[in-house]
TrEMBL record:
Gene3D superfamilies: ABC transporter type 1, transmembrane domain, P-loop containing nucleotide triphosphate hydrolases
Name of protein: ABC transporter ATP-binding protein
PANTHER family: ATP-BINDING CASSETTE SUB-FAMILY B MEMBER 10, MITOCHONDRIAL, ATP-DEPENDENT PERMEASE MDL1, MITOCHONDRIAL
GO cellular component, one term: plasma membrane
Keyword Cell cycle in annotation: no
Main location: membrane
Topology class, membrane: Multi-pass membrane protein
Protein species of origin: Candidatus Pullibacteroides excrementavium
Pfam families: ABC_membrane, ABC_tran
Sequence ranges assigned to domain ABC transmembrane type-1 in this UniProt record: 19-333
SMART domains in UniProt: AAA (SM00382)
Compartment(s) where it occurs, according to its Swiss-Prot or TrEMBL record: Cell membrane
SUPFAM superfamilies noted in UniProt: ABC transporter transmembrane region, P-loop containing nucleoside triphosphate hydrolases
Keywords attached to this entry: ATP-binding, Membrane, Nucleotide-binding, Transmembrane, Transmembrane helix
Length: 605
């Protein structure tokens, strides 16, 4: 029921269009009923089953009275103009009634389109916005392919659930109820016979669909795993080919694909069984009505024309009844899809901003780590333990240590990708948890080990997220990053579109583009996380020159394994197992003969 309430909550934003959809569907049902009701008087008068009688009774909403009026006027028209004219009259009336009813049906679907597209837009936007607010730890635990599956597969399933819920769960029952009222008005005894069979039909529907939701959830989870396998295969294609693993990964995918197909077939079999079962039961009911109703006609308890109308109304109920059943399964599948989407939306955001958060546009004096300890939410192992560090404005600080010592975590905490478990981090004496996130991250520029570029032009990659930036400013930033010359050599210069993940340029060129982006951002605090470790010697020289220009006049925090790149840093901080074990400049630490000196000797500096 929680999923249904959520679906209704999304629909509530478009209640005007939902109301119009219901209104036009109601008009469609009424006009459809009227068009079918024309058949009985036409059959009666045309074949002489009923002769015109004396004066008409007072008009009232009673089936017998309505029929007498219809017999009277159609009979008069037929007597004056002949049988063919009577046939033409009823045929035209039937066509007009059908035309009007389908116009109403079109307007019902017209309004439904706004509900479908609007709800999907809201759901997709909520999903994406919330994913962007989740902590980095969430993405280390979850597979990207599963998230992509929820966007590409589950949200369209919710769309079908919307259609099914409005048309099959709300509108089709309205159709059935309206025609059922007509059946009761024609012959309540015959209709009671029909109603006796409905509990049996509902029981069959319930038994068939009892496990559909859980099976759908399993199938959708398996699909997410398959998307992840495809994504991993594409990302690792170079390694797969170099290790001759094409057959191995292909076999793994084939086996999982077979499991998915078996599970999917189980869902399809269960869902597709409902429609034929329902039709068989409804046809059996119809045949029972024909037998029982036929005896009532022969005994004079029911007129032939009303019996013909009764059968037509009963037949018209069969199709919407089947749609109700089909819609029930679509809603069940949609509920499973909505549940998977809401699992992500219900995740607690990792970056919460206080309503009283302070604005801060300048970095004035220092950054301080006070007794900072940190562990990830899913682990009790401390990544940082009681770290105390003062970073003064305008100086360069280098963080050194073995992999996993906590260096990258230090800068991640500064940008609030994670929050400290104990202690505090402050900028100019203000705890960063009390600052506006946007302002905090505007103060910090980052150049990482793995440069990221978008599938967009070079110019747009450099000025990404920055408004009112002129082309001259973009080019000036590129020149400072030693990127202008290679950019101008590209086919369309700054308008060249970089391929997926920037594969059309080299790693060093991608890095210089990201440095140009950092130069243009002009953040007062700069974080360099292994910015040259993955480059060849020539690219490293060019990137290092660009970094030197970028670091001028800024407070820099440099993480490096190549100690040659940080020997001139103002202050070097050595980490070991989450703790600071040494601090000082290059010469001071060498003289100590401790951890730093050991690293220097290992690299033959």
């Amino acid at each position: 029921m929680k999923d249904i309430r959520r679906l209704i909550a999304y629909m509530a934003r478009y209640r005007g269009h939902v109301a119009l959809n219901i209104f036009f569907n109601l008009l469609y049902v009424l006009t459809s009923f009227f068009s079918i009701a024309l058949v009985a008087p036409f059959v009666s008068v045309l074949f002489g089953l009923v002769e015109e009688t004396g004066p008409l009774p007072a008009f009232r909403l009673d089936p017998d009275v309505l029929m007498q009026y219809a017999y009277h006027y159609i009979g008069m028209f037929q007597a004056q103009h002949g049988i063919m004219s009577g046939l033409l009259l009823v045929s035209v009336a039937f066509v007009l009634a059908t035309l009007i009813s389908n116009v109403f049906r079109y307007f019902a679907f017209y309004n439904l389109a706004y509900v479908r597209s609007g709800m999907l837009r809201d759901l997709r936007q909520n999903f994406y916005s919330h994913v962007m607010s989740l902590p980095l730890s969430y993405f280390s635990e979850k597979k990207k392919g599963d998230l992509l599956s929820r966007v590409n597969m589950d949200i369209p399933d919710v769309e079908w659930a919307i259609v099914a819920s409005l048309q099959g769960i709300i509108m089709e029952p309205l159709y059935v109820v309206m025609f059922a009222i007509g059946l009761f008005a024609l012959d309540y005894k015959l209709t009671l016979l029909v109603l006796v069979a409905f509990p049996v039909i509902l029981y069959v529907i319930g038994k068939v669909g009892s496990r559909l939701k859980s099976r759908s959830e399993k199938v959708q989870a398996m699909l997410g795993q398959m998307v992840s396998m495809v994504e991993e295969g594409i990302n690792g294609i170079r390694i797969i080919k170099s290790f001759n693993l094409i057959d191995v990964v292909g076999k793994n995918f084939e086996n999982y694909n077979k499991q998915y197909v078996r599970a999917l077939n189980g869902v399809y079999r269960r869902r597709d069984l409902s429609s034929p079962l329902t039709e068989i039961l409804l046809v059996a009911v119809t045949m029972g009505v024909l037998g029982f109703g036929g005896t009532r006609v022969l005994s004079g308890q029911m007129s032939p024309d009303l019996f013909v109308l009764y059968i037509l109304l009963l037949i018209k109920i069969i199709s919407p009844s089947k749609h109700v059943v089909t819609s029930f399964y679509s809603v069940q599948k949609g509920r499973a899809a909505l549940g998977r989407i809401q699992q992500v939306i219900d995740e607690i955001p990792g970056e919460e901003e206080s309503p009283e958060a302070l604005a801060k546009k300048e970095f004035l004096s220092d950054i301080r780590y006070r007794d900072v300890s940190f562990h990830y939410s899913d682990s009790e192992t401390m990544v940082l333990q009681h770290v105390n560090l003062k970073i003064e404005k305008g100086k360069t600080y280098a963080l050194v240590g073995a992999s996993g010592a906590g260096k990258t975590t230090m800068v991640d905490l500064l940008s609030r990708f994670y929050d400290v478990s104990e202690g505090s981090i402050s900028i100019d004496g203000v705890d960063i948890r009390d600052l506006k996130l946007e302002d905090l991250r505007d103060l910090v520029g980052t150049v990482g080990q793995h440069p990221f570029v978008w599938h967009d032009t070079v110019a747009n990659n450099i000025r990404f997220g920055m408004e009112n930036v002129s082309m001259d400013e973009v080019m000036e930033a590129a020149k400072k990053a030693n990127a202008h010359d290679f950019i101008m050599a590209l086919p369309q210069g700054y308008d060249t579109v970089l391929g997926d993940a920037g594969m059309t340029v080299s790693g060093g060129q991608r890095q210089r583009i990201t440095i140009a982006r950092a130069i243009l951002k002009n953040a007062p605090v700069l974080v360099l996380d292994e910015a040259t470790s993955a480059l060849d010697a020539e690219s490293e020289v060019l990137v290092q020159e660009a970094l030197s220009k970028l670091m001028e006049g800024r407070t820099s925090i440099v993480i490096a394994h190549r100690l040659s790149t940080i020997r001139n840093a103002d202050h070097i901080v050595v980490f070991e197992k989450g703790r600071i074990v040494e601090e000082g400049c290059h010469q001071e630490l060498l003289a100590k003969g401790g951890h730093y000196a050991h690293y220097v000797n290992l690299q033959n500096l």
